[in-house]
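Appendix B. Worked example

We walk through a single record from start to finish. Start with the input: the chain for Lactate utilization protein C, Conexibacter stalactiti, length 215.
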Amino acid sequence: MSDAKSEILARVRAALNDVPAGETAGDVAVVRDYRRVGELPAAEVVELFAENCADYRANVRQVSEAELPGAIAAWLAERGHRRLAIPADLPAAWRVDGVEWVEDRSLSHDELSAVDGVVTGCAVAIALNGTIVLDGGVAQGRRALTLLPDYHLCVVPAERIVELVPEGIARLGDAARAGQPMTMIAGPSATSDIELNRVEGVHGPRTLDVLVVTG
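Next comes the structure step. The output line below is what the pipeline stores for this chain.
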């Protein structure tokens, strides 16, 4: 055993010296005095989400419901994307003209990698940390759909944005109990090596565009 490992284990044992014999984790009450409900007005929650989401190098635009189809078309044209994978239940209003929409009906990994990108909705978005969560529900598709293509355009309705993490987790309760896998997105996929050289697109889309629908 290495000296470092021995020292770590010794510290763990020392920290556990005052634990009564037979005590389990379930015997100790967990203090949950953190905030569970946000206090900001709805408009400020949306602004906070947009700001923090952009901090993760996502591109964020706010649009009205009426402007949404045009905004989708404009962004795809701007990116030069013409062939997009989508969940089979993506709303018809989002399927703008001039684009080949490829419904994901068990597309292979090679087929998903060959499209220009993917368009989805989301389950919930968290303003405090700018995170978008997909749970496989309506207009979201399976995990592979948003992990393999190099581009992701995500539509985030304002009513799905919450201020705090506990609020977001609470909204995901039914999906969690049903065993649905979650995908938490904080900007485009990125990693860095030991020299802190950032590389994007390693574990998911290289580019993330977000349309926040405010009404």
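Two observations about the output. The longest strand covers residues 151-157. The radius of gyration is 21 Å.
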